[in-house]
Amino acid sequence: MTERTPLIAGNWKMNLDHLQAIALIQKLAWTLNEKNHDFKDVEVCVIPPFTSLRSAQTLIEAEKFELSLGAQDISKHASGAYTGEISGAMLSKLAVKYVLVGHSERRQYHNEDDSVISAKVAASFSSNITPIICVGETQEQLQEFGPSAIPVKQVLAALEGQENLREFVIAYEPVWAIGTGEIATPEQAENVAVEIRAAIGQKFGDVAEQVRILYGGSVKAGNVAGFMQGANIDGVLVGGASLDSAEFAGIARYKKHIVL
Ligand code: PEP
Predict the structure, then answer these.
(1) How far is Cα 223 from Cα 76, in angstroms, rounded to an integer?
(2) What DSSP element (H or E) covers 27?
(3) Who has the most CB within 10 Å: 98, 128, 169, 189?
(4) Is 18 a catalytic residue?
(5) How many CB atoms within 10 Å of residue 83?
(6) Do 225 and 10 touch, CB atoms closer than 8 A?
(7) How far apart are the CA of 11 and the centre of ligand 1, in A?
(8) pLDDT value at position 258?
């Protein structure tokens, strides 16, 4: 069986200025270091807004923190007259390792469709940044199409026609569970992850065994361990709870939790 290093990623969304970001990263790293967290065993990634990336990078490098850095979006364009956009090359200069692509809030509020998302995945690959491709169904879609049809379709659309396939991560985030306090059961998440992995396997073969599949949607320190027991769940994408260093550190330390 392929060993996949679990990834615990915190999406801060549009929260915290760069000074607050520095304080949160410091507290998080200190908490985890104090508990002797093994970052090679469970990878921990912070995903602040663009305005905090430079400060986060400088701090992480200066203090030799073992945290990974992610960005919340990437332009599908490489450079040029695209006011307000941030390119992959700019992100990789800031030591950004991961980028969220196709988060449901981008799909909903910025009308990002499959073709935009696939172009952003391609832009990530060209910049050597690992996309965390976010997929998930709304409550209505769940009722109409069942649990895995929409996420599987979105995964395949994001990967369609990629000429330069490199490492990627999938985050299964049911839209109805994001920021709502509602949560999928570990069994629901595992079942969808199985279907996603099978679909990737059908299309791309052995790559599927290496792909990390995360669950996201109202994850907290108190419920993370159940998800992480799924054989096909390789981590979590955390929104709200990642803004609290103690709570997020608790999520990263899920192996220490007693699972009843
Ligand atoms: C998210 O923003 O990807 C997310 C899962 O948010 P929350 O954990 O707050 O539901």
Answers:
(1) 35
(2) helix 18-34
(3) 189
(4) no
(5) 4
(6) no
(7) 7
(8) 53
